[in-house]
Every structure is written in structure tokens, then in C-alpha cells.
Amino acid sequence: MVRVIALANQKGGVGKTTTALNIAAGLLKNGQKVLLIDLDPQSNATSGAGVDKKEINFDAYDVLISNRSVKSAILKRTDNFDILPSSPELAGAEIELTKKKNRQMILKRKIAQEKENYDFVIIDNPPALGLLSLNSLMAADSVLIPVQAEYFALEGLAQLKKTIDLVKEHGNLGLTIEGILMTMTTHTKISRQVVAEVEKHFPEETYSITIPRNVRLTEAPSFGQSIFDFAGFSSGARAYNKLVKEIISKDGTEESEPS
Ligand SMILES: Nc1ncnc2c1ncn2[C@@H]1O[C@H](COP(=O)(O)OP(=O)(O)OP(=O)(O)O)[C@@H](O)[C@H]1O
Ligand SMILES: [Mg+2]
């Protein structure tokens, strides 16, 4: 069964795109078939995956706003890896979507058939809880929430949880929290305190795996590479590798009935 995972946090720069790119790459490395959807007008996931603007004919904007199918806009990277790229025009979609009927359900409807060709669909989102993120949350099975281990980490998490509850009430009852992922952790006291605080507030949801601050993770996307190809022995690669294993191991186990 395909799993659709949305990366969300309305706070900017917390590691959504870095996590989307590296879990997509890690899943691929583990033999999974992956569709990466870039729903952020900043297009960082698109460029970080090594897509050249010149390669893009159609993008997520066309899919959300016109009759274009996901299939016809997808870029094939390898046999097992497809991308629905983003473009700066997507910023306009936030406004244009407001005129559409069932505007928060468009992505869900559009990927309904296509997603069955994959093991995982990973959706990167902008740092806002607007219509783009809402479309992702409606289309997703779960939300993975990266949280930067800094002051004010908890700020916004309550609102995000409220939004997730609203999405559950209004059309996506099965939406779960895949996990809260502490990112850019360091050995400083403040970093440890913030991780502890988030764990205290969200003991069930917070991963025991944390992603350390690692400069290799910032360098890799400028080469269009995942951390596994760029610096396979780095602390960042090791942490994302563990996270990917954890995500895969969850597969199907939650629904299984005790026999
Ligand atoms: N573990 C890490 N160690 C060091 N740098 C990191 C790490 N994770 C992310 N970064 C860097 O921090 C910055 C923000 O990360 P990223 O782009 O993944 O966040 P984002 O949540 O997608 O941001 P936005 O909200 O703008 O889309 C980037 O420069 C990225 O390379
Ligand atoms: Mg981003």
C-alpha cells in the first residue's frame, strides 16, 4: 500500500526540504518506488534533487490550476524516482485556488490514481498553512513535522496540531502524525533543553532519532545530490538512514490486527 507523507511546519527553515529530499533518497536506496511532490513555490526540493529548470515543461502549478494530469507533468529521474516539480508560479496558486470549488481537495483528487504506482509519495510544503499545505494535508496519510532545535521550537506546533485536527474533521479522518523530527541538534545545553521540551509536550509523536547540525546537509543540494551520494559517512547521512529505516519499519504494522 502506498503511503503519502507530507512534510509540514509553517515555520520557515526548519528542515522540511532537507528531510523531504533525504528521506526520498533513503527510501529509494531501500528499493522503494518514490514520487516526490514539490508544493513550495521556492522550488528548493526541485533544484535540490538536481532538476534543471530547463527540463521542466509542466509543474505542480499546472496540475493544481488546470486540467493537466499529474502523470503528464511528472519528471522521471530514475526507474524508481519521479518528481512533480514546483515553480515560482505556484505562489499564485494560493490565490487562484480560492476561486475553485473543493479547493483544498484538488491534490488529493489529482494524485488518487497516480499514487498507486508508488510505495511512497513525499510532499514538500511551503512555510505557511495556506491552501497549498492544506491540499497536502488532505492528500496525505501522515504528516512528518521537522522542528528545529532552537528557541521558540514549540511556537507554532500547537497551531499546526490544531490545523491537523481540522483537516481530520473536514475530509481526511485517517490523517496521522508520522512523527516530530528534531533537526539541527547540537551538543549545546539549549539544544538538549529544546529537544527535551518538545519530547515532554509530544512524547508519543517525537522521534528518538534526531538530525544533527551537519554542514554536509547544506552542501549536498547545491550539487543536486542526496546526503547519501554526497557524504555517505557523514553524521547527517547516518541520522537520515536511521529515520528512513524507522519509516519503512512502520509500514503496515499499525493497521495489522493481532492474530
Ligand atoms: N541538519 C542540518 N544541519 C545543517 N544545516 C541544515 C540541516 N537541515 C537543514 N539545514 C539547512 O538549513 C536551511 C533550512 O533548511 P530547509 O531548506 O530544509 O528548511 P525548510 O523548512 O524546507 O525551509 P522553508 O520553510 O524555507 O522551505 C537550509 O540552508 C538547509 O541546508
Ligand atoms: Mg523548504
Automatic annotation (TrEMBL):
<comment type="similarity">
    <text>Belongs to the ParA family.</text>
</comment>
<protein>
    <recommendedName>
        <fullName>Sporulation initiation inhibitor protein Soj</fullName>
    </recommendedName>
</protein>
<comment type="subunit">
    <text>Dimerizes in the presence of ATP but not ADP; ATP-binding is required for double-stranded (ds)DNA-binding. Interacts with DnaA.</text>
</comment>
<dbReference type="InterPro" id="IPR025669">
    <property type="entry name" value="AAA_dom"/>
</dbReference>
<dbReference type="Pfam" id="PF13614">
    <property type="entry name" value="AAA_31"/>
</dbReference>
<dbReference type="InterPro" id="IPR050678">
    <property type="entry name" value="DNA_Partitioning_ATPase"/>
</dbReference>
<feature type="domain" description="AAA">
    <location>
        <begin position="3"/>
        <end position="176"/>
    </location>
</feature>
<dbReference type="InterPro" id="IPR027417">
    <property type="entry name" value="P-loop_NTPase"/>
</dbReference>
